[in-house]
Amino acid sequence: MTPITPLVPTAPGRFAGQSVVEELLRQHADRPARSRLARTLGAPPLDANELSWLRAAQAEMIVGDILGRLPEGYSVYHSLPIRNTAFWVDHLVVGPGGIFSINSKTHWDRDLTGSLRSIPINDHAMPYLRDAPFESAQITALLAQVLPATTVVQPVIVLVNPHKILLARKPDAVTVIDSPRLRRWLVARPPVFSPEQQAALTAAIDDPATWRAAAQPLAPAHLHARFTALEQQVAAAGTRRTTFTVLAGAAAATVLAVATSPLIVAAVEYLAVR
Questions:
Q1: Would you say residue 103 has pLDDT above 80?
Q2: Distance of CA 117 to CAs 120, 133, 195, Å?
Q3: How would you class 220 by CB atoms within 10 Å of its CB: exposed for 0-12, middle for 13-18, buried for 19 or more?
Q4: N or C: which end of the chain has fewer CB within 10 A?
Q5: Whole-model pTM?
């Protein structure tokens, strides 16, 4: 994926999807290398769980690119590990219309149906509608000293390019939106912060002490390069599997044609003499 230069300030050293990429690479580090034969035949370089982490990172990067196109007056942060928890916030946006904790979820090319408590992802009911308010409450607590008393961090769940979003009823505490409408929705929020309040919030968010430090931080460029290499391996393996499937089908058709040709010839000769 080609990174897009953001038009708004971002947190130093953190790119969209970085926390997910770190977890993916941690899991993949213990996976045995594929043999030459396995690579030739297109064996997947990632298992099913690792592939889900890769798709999650891709979703965060797509949403990160969208947020990077917000107009002047917005500050965008990515992959912020929440202090005193094992969670991180995918994206945090501070603008005139409020402060938003945004979760990116993979739901490509499918309709979304769900209840007020869960969203089905890959045929499993995921408690995103329950977890999102918890996450936003944690961030609200971290920023309580500078956040206006009447304002809380607003939780948002972004589905990457679903066909439709068909929830049983609109959630009360969480906004669920598809990725193409995200930028327009954020810009349309009515103003709630003054420039001075926004400046105080961004100063608190920029302070590394606000967030949990990574155990073994790696250079973002190094992480991104390793992730891109895995993406390329997954794509190449898929291409090889498709190629072998087509070749196998063609070979089977050829064998069938050779095996049945004497019968066809005999049938034609029989019909010709009658």
A1: yes
A2: 10, 11, 36
A3: middle
A4: C
A5: 0.77
